[in-house]
Every structure is written in structure tokens, then in C-alpha cells.
Write a structure and sequence with these properties.
Blueprint: E1 5-14, E2 26-35, H1 42-51, E3 70-71, E4 74-75, E5 84-86, H2 89-100, H3 108-117, H4 119-124, E6 127-131, E7 149-156, E8 161-169
Antiparallel strand pairs: 1-2, 2-8, 3-4, 5-6, 6-7, 7-8
Amino acid sequence: MQEALTYLGQTFINFREFLFEDHARRWVDIKRFGMSHSDVGDTHILTELIGHEQFRDDYAGGGVEADGLRHGPYWLRNVSPAAYVRMDEMGANAMLRDWAAQSGPLPVALSARLEHEVHPLVAGATERYRLSDLGHEAFHDWGGVHIDFHELVFIDRPAKILSLLVAADD
């Protein structure tokens, strides 16, 4: 059987590339995947995402490790489809905007980039999920390095695209 998810590429938005004092070392990482079967259930799609090599990323400079045991601040073994909760469009947009502007107003160019790269994913998704806070007991050996770690999954069934978005700091 064909792989359920095919990695298509990545977009990285580093707040440090924009001129303002309060970037707080924040960034947004978006990984896009093509879905070969858009008619399967969300639990199956999330299971495929968790099992994908590109999911094995610590988001702390180590990058993707094919045999990695970490995902963000968590041991990979602690992440399951049940850890994801549904969000509506308004809630996802509010969470992302609040996180981005937590230290004050954003530069116009950064706001425009987020509006162009991030918010269309939210609007176009037929399903939206966020990874729950799994707690400190689920952290890997240095998992507390991020002050903020927000992970959202956007499933766009008509386009057959899944987007994994991480908004965090380093």
C-alpha cells in the first residue's frame, strides 16, 4: 500500500528576521504532507503523522532524526492521536495571534507573513487539532527547553494536504 502521508516541504518563519525588540526568540515551523487517502478517519491520519519520520523532530536545533525518540519537548512514545483535541477556526486563529503578540505589537512585515503563510492553513482546514499539554512527566531528558510550545495539525481534505504547525521559542 502507498504511504498515507508524503512529506512535501517546510516553511520556517523566524521572528528574529524582523526588526523589533520583543521577538522573544519565537518562530513558526510548518511541515506539509500530501495525503494519499483523504477518506480515512482523523485518528488514522494522526497515527500516520506520528509514525512519519518528519515527526521525529525535537524543534530545538537537532532537526529530524530518522530513528529519533523525541517530538518537541516530549518522548515520542507519549504522543498519540488521543493527545490531540479538536479546535475550531476561531479558536486556532486566536491562539496563534495571542501567542505571536504576547510581547507586544508585531512588525507589519511579520504580521503580513503570518497572515499569508499561517492563517490560510487555519481557514482552509476541514479539521483542526492541537496537541494537548502532556505534562512534565512526558518530557524527554531536556524537554523543558521551550517556554512556549504549541502544535497544531490542519487537515485539508479537498486539497489532500495535512499541515503540522509548531509555534514555539528557543
